Amino acid sequence: MSASLQVTQQRQQQRQQLQQQEKQQHHYESSYYLSTKSSVSKQSFSTYKTTSRRLKTSVKTEKGQEVVKLSPLPKRAKRTYLAMDTDKEVIGYVIPVFRANHDVVRGLMEAQEDVTEEGINYVAMRNLFVREAREALDVKVEKKTRSKHVRESAERLELDKTMDEWAEFRKKMNPDSLTHPPEFIVKPRGQTVWEGKTVKLHCTVAGWPKPRIAWYKNNVLIDAKAHPEKYTAESSYNMHSLEIKNCDFLDTAQYRISALNVKGETSSVATIVVKRFQEGEESGPLDPKPHGFCPEHGVTFQTTIIDKFEVAFGREGETLSLGCTVIIYPTVKKYQPEIVWYRNSVPLKPSKWVHTHWSGERATLTLVHLNKEDEGMYTLRVNTKSGFDTYSAYVFVRDADVEVEGVPVAPLDVRCHDANKDYVVVTWKQPAVEGSSPILGYYIDRCEVGTHHWAQCNDTPVKYARFPVTGLVEGRSYIFRVRALNKAGVSRPSRVSEAVVAMDPSDRARLRAGPSAPWTGMIKFTEEDPTVGVVPGEPSDVVVTEATKSYVVLAWKPPVQRGHEGVMYYIEKCISGTDTWQRVNTGMPVKSPRFALFDLAEGKSYSFRVRCCNSAGVGEPSESTGEITVGDKLDLPSAPGSPVATRNTSTSVVVSWGASKEVRHLVGYYIECSVVGTDVWMPCNNKPVKQTRFVCHGLTTGVNYVFSVKAVNAAGYSQSSPISDAVVVQAAISIPRQPTGVTLLEALKDYMVLGWTEPADNGGADIRGYFVDYRTVKGNVFGKWHEMNHQALTTTTYKAENLKENIFYQFQVRAMNMAGVSKASVPSASLECKEWTITVPGAPVGLHVLEVRDTSVVVLWEPPAFDGRTPVNGYYLDVKEASAGEEGWKAVHEKANKMKYMKVTGLKAGTSYVFRVRAQNLAGVGKPSAVLGPILAQTRPGTKEIYVDVDDNGVISMIFECSEMNEGSEFVWSKNYQAITDTSRLTIVNEGGKSRAIFNSPSLEDLGTFSCMVTNTDGISSSYTLTEEGLKRLLDISHDHKFPVIPFKSEMAMELLEKGRVRFWTQVEKCTSDCQVEYVFNDVIITQGKKYTMNFDKSAGIIEMFMDSLEVTDEGTFTFNLVDGKAKGTTSLVLIGDEFRELQKKSEFARAEWVRKQGPHFVEYLDFAVTPECDVLLKCKIGNVRPETEITWSKDSIEIAEDDEDASKIERKDGELTFNIGKISKKDAGIYEVFLRDDRGKDNSIFSLTDQGYQAVMNELFRVIANSSSEIKVLSTEHGIVLYSMVTYYNEDLRVGWLHKDAKLATSERVSCGVTGEQLWLKINEPTEKDKGKYTMDIFDGKDGVKRAFDLTGKAWEEAFEEFQRLKAAAIAERNRARVVGGLPDVVAIQEGKSLNLTGNVWGDPVPEVSWTKNEKELLPDDHYKLKFEHGKFASITIATVTTADSGKYALLVKNKYGTEAGEFTVSVYNPEEEEHKEEKKD
């Protein structure tokens, strides 16, 4: 049988299987379904096993009963894809035939449904497609010849072409397909070029709307217009190019072109490699390179990095900035270097955490919201056309303070790996600090991008620093964070990871590469129909990728045969020793070829296998993984080797150790330090390092430390290494740097005097001496170097003897300290040995600085070796900024300085300076010295100044402290920068890092500048200038300390107490428990007894004396004398004369008041108050009353009885009595009195509501009314403008005045004011322009008055005046409009044949026009109707001989320019005979 016949039989078998499945009502939905209005037949898609129809369908059970009715799928309904196994159980979802955006597909199908009118071309193409599709899919069993088989194959190809054309036609019919995202027709190609050549990148981009194009270099936008000399970008007819001119090695980079329109964005990358014409090993990215000539600009750029950032320390959550000043020389207009920042040799890109800035002079890196991930070595690289320079320093990030004591700090470096459709592996690094107890595990949280809801991924903490997260939703993006747990609690969360999308890796790779073609809604049918509906094969290569105590992760490869719809997976496990396989994920199959199994028994062995499933069913299982024992496969690292700590700087130590021998997947090492004698360990790094050497910074100078190291991997921490030997934090000693500035100071026939500048860095130890070498120079021939001195020199000058006259020599100098001899200095210029004949002095030597601060520095020097003809009589000091040219030198002072030192002030912090000195004699000023510097004007951290102390014994001393003492360091004191030789004035006492200079007998001889420097350090020094004024102040303080006085916080004072008692008291600032007090009155010591009571609270320092009363004999002086050790204090109070008598009266009154308050009494006497409602209240407060206490009110000595009208106004509440007068008037005036009586006593209170009392009440009432007034408002009327204000209440005695432009208004016929109810108003009749301006209402409030103002100008005036005119016009129109004012009846009944005459009274100005109507038709005068209008007021109508035809509705119409009115009446004409006849009929 031929191959064609076999294919035909296979198709027939598949059709039979399909029909059988349709009988069993197994419904599956494919990812594409046909519209109900489509004319494509069911057979066209029968091989795709679709039963999706927009028809009502019944699903029947095996008994044939209809149990469910499915309605048509609603429009835009989200379709489900269910798959069932042979037991009719839902096992998962069917993967769509093609991967595409379901919304796009749904939109395409709905667009097909909405088509109601089909064009001729569309119908023809559709019918052609249907007919040929039917013919292509008809199944016939026949034997075919080879030629016929070939012909049919050709026909099938033609059919494919026809279907493609049909799809293209449908694509054009869809409006959404007219626009599509950009795509690269021709991509740019990478190229390799030689340095100095020009290279051009080409590409072709399609898309609609027309895409916008941008070129990038290493993800930095290229601005071709800003750099036309380097780049040229062109675009023409979708063809784009970038030309790079004069390529150099800095142009080696990845160049990316991005195309963007409203439908999307795509990009393509090409790499340009620039090769140099030289051999040799290529430098690393951070290796320094020599500066070379730049032919483009014709210069060689020199780069200098100054003001460098030091080792920095930050804390989590803070913001940290690093910066350097970059000097590029020479300066080329519009040329800027390229600034690149690195962390641990990895370039940094700007982000929300990293901000970079280049000002043209200073490069700044800002790290926002620091995290431990930001810790590392930071490098600034400056690229120029001549090369590049770099500078690096380490940044440490300390942990933020924990919220709960003892909890661990946050983990770090959370990353996502192996992301798939519903699965991702999250990894992190353990923190350096575990807290008060070891870390028990970690919690992983996830958050969907775009939301703020964090969900915990694991219920049980995981110990392993790696966790598989499952259950993700395909196509969604997630971020993750991790928290650590120990016994004390849970740490703060880590920094969130980068967002990761849950999707197939192949889809992710395709998205990164960019779409190959935009989605157009086209579906291609191929010849792979037989694979659809086939059960997928078994997966392959099932392996265990991870195994821990908590979980096991399986990975496998998908089957080869899986059809178009994709597959899902079931995982099965088998316990070792059994043959039973259990399905793990029974609820839902997984989409990803990864799966994590939890809840396995630790120590047991399992086997695993995987099955595939799709809509056709579940496939065969894969091969078993073999037995896998559950447990950690990754062991903890072994302990690192013993660490060795060595000195580095004054605040850092270098720690090196042996690597862990048994470790897999090492994450890094954590280093800890501890001060000797304590058990507190502190982390040196918060981010693990992989190298076995680390510099621990931020240590305290002079403190003894030990160090320990532990390794870490995903399994956890290793045991700590052995503890290192203790090391003192001090700067390491090294050989000094070479001396500088070798110059000639003096010359004679056979010798020369040389001078030089000491090294800028002594290597951490004092310079012990110098060695001088020389050589002869003849023309351009240099001799060999020879030593001149075999014993080290202790000065920076040297007399080179036994030289030959007129011979040229060169000299070089080496410095020596305890570590060794430095390199030789730069050789001096060729110097001729011949006698000098100059008269001016030589150059000063030995320049050095002390006390370097932000704004000042002290420069010292030694006199020149050669004085000239006369002795040196002064010096000049010059200074300039290090970056300035020679023209930048300027003198520090104008007059010659006779001292050999000078303090330079006014410097700029952070700026480097250089100095030089010139000597002067009578002949003139000599040559300048060698330049000293550059010296950075910056106060070094931890710098302390000399301070003066006066101890308790009055001893005056100067103290200087240094925390950076090195081995062999000493304190050296000097006065006026000369060594102190006279020990009779000062006594020096040194204790550790503190030195005290004690004045033995302070006097004017001690005035001057005292300085102290610490040897064997980096120039640590300070000074203190003692002036005459300062000395006097110190002597006063010394006297106070020798003869102390007890300080008083307050002097003696007196106060009256209850019952008239008198209290004398004072308070001292401080005293001891031994302090004693002596109480004195008129120089006589008094003691505690019946008259006096004393008390001394030593803890508070309060001294008290009490007297029950003051008598005549108590007039005099009271004194407290205090003694506290050798300190004394006295305070007194004088009570005599009128002051004493006044105090005595107050004491007696206070006692009488106390007696009064023993019975019922007034706490507050009778007084008045005015409420916001303008009611007047008389009120008082009473105390110590009983139920039987009698309370009586009276007015004008007449008691108010209970049945009086005023009794209802009295109220008592909570010890307060009130009498509510209400709205006061003159009849309420009188004298009010309240009496309190019981068996304990009586009291009364009077309030006079007359004269002044009445006026006080009225003034308060006026105040309340005035303050209740509202702001002035404006109201327009037909007569004018009204300004008004509302008050709570108005009293006729209240004075209210109005002002216009601050002038009082007088009342007139046109302007008037008044009160209506609670409204205060001002009326302006017939306002004019003169009435504009500011109006003020002045309401008397008992004092100055309350003013309310209104500015009647501008818009306020315009609106008010316009409204006035409108109302006025309306009033005039209403008064003058035409109207019928009377005379006409409503109904007129008249007998037929008679005449009717009616007259109406008319009014209007001007005289209105008059007309008459009948049944809404105008009447014209004739013989029958006579119409008259007389005197402009009377309109009459006469109907002669009325008939029944005259019956109807009549109206008199009057009209003028102001309006129209109608006077209506009804005329009824009757015939008596007809009326009688009607009555007879009724009878």
Characterization of the model:
With 1483 residues, the protein is mainly beta. The strands form 26 sheets. Strands 49, 50, 51, 53, 54 and 55 form a 6-stranded antiparallel β-sheet that branches. Strands 6-13-12-8-9 form a 5-stranded mixed β-sheet, with no helix packed on it. The protein has a 5-stranded mixed β-sheet with strand order 15-22-21-17-18, with no helix packed on it. Helix 3 runs antiparallel to helix 4. The longest helix is centred in the first third of the chain and has 28 residues, at 146-173. The radius of gyration is 55 Å and the shape is extended. 25% of the residues are buried.
Termini, distance in Å? 122 Å
Radius of gyration: 55 Å
**Beta-strand content bin:** 35-45%
Ranges where pLDDT stays below 50 over 5 or more residues in a row are 1-8, 21-125, 135-140, 278-286, 514-531
Oligomeric organization of the protein chains: single chain
Per the principal axes of the C-alpha atoms, what is the gross shape? extended
Structural class: mainly beta
How many strand units?
A: 104
Features:
12% helix; 1483 residues; five-stranded mixed β-sheet; mainly beta; six-stranded antiparallel β-sheet
Please render the helix and strand layout as text.
Layout: H1 3-23, E1 57-60, E2 66-70, E3 82-84, E4 90-93, H2 102-113, H3 120-137, H4 146-173, E5 180-186, E6 191-194, E7 199-208, E8 212-217, E9 220-221, E10 231-236, E11 239-244, E12 253-261, E13 264-275, E14 302-306, E15 312-315, E16 320-329, E17 338-343, E18 346-347, E19 354-358, E20 362-367, E21 376-384, E22 387-398, E23 412-417, E24 423-429, E25 441-448, E26 454-456, E27 466-470, E28 477-486, E29 489-490, E30 500-501, H5 505-513, E31 540-547, E32 551-557, E33 568-575, E34 582-583, E35 594-598, E36 605-614, E37 617-618, E38 628-629, E39 644-649, E40 652-656, E41 666-675, E42 682-683, E43 693-696, E44 704-713, E45 716-717, E46 727-728, E47 740-747, E48 752-757, E49 769-778, E50 781-782, E51 786-787, E52 797-800, E53 808-817, E54 820-821, E55 831-832, E56 845-850, E57 857-862, E58 874-881, E59 890-891, E60 901-904, E61 912-921, E62 924-928, E63 932-936, E64 947-950, E65 956-961, E66 971-975, E67 978-979, E68 986-991, E69 994-999, E70 1008-1014, E71 1021-1026, H6 1028-1042, E72 1048-1056, E73 1062-1068, E74 1076-1081, ...
Parallel strand pairs: 6-13, 15-22, 97-104
Antiparallel strand pairs: 1-2, 3-4, 5-7, 7-11, 8-9, 8-12, 10-11, 12-13, 14-16, 16-20, 17-18, 17-21, 19-20, 21-22, 23-24, 24-27, 25-26, 25-28, 28-29, 28-30, 31-32, 32-35, 33-34, 33-36, 36-37, 36-38, 39-40, 40-43, 41-42, 41-44, 44-45, 44-46, 47-48, 48-52, 49-50, 49-51, 49-53, 53-54, 53-55, 56-57, ...
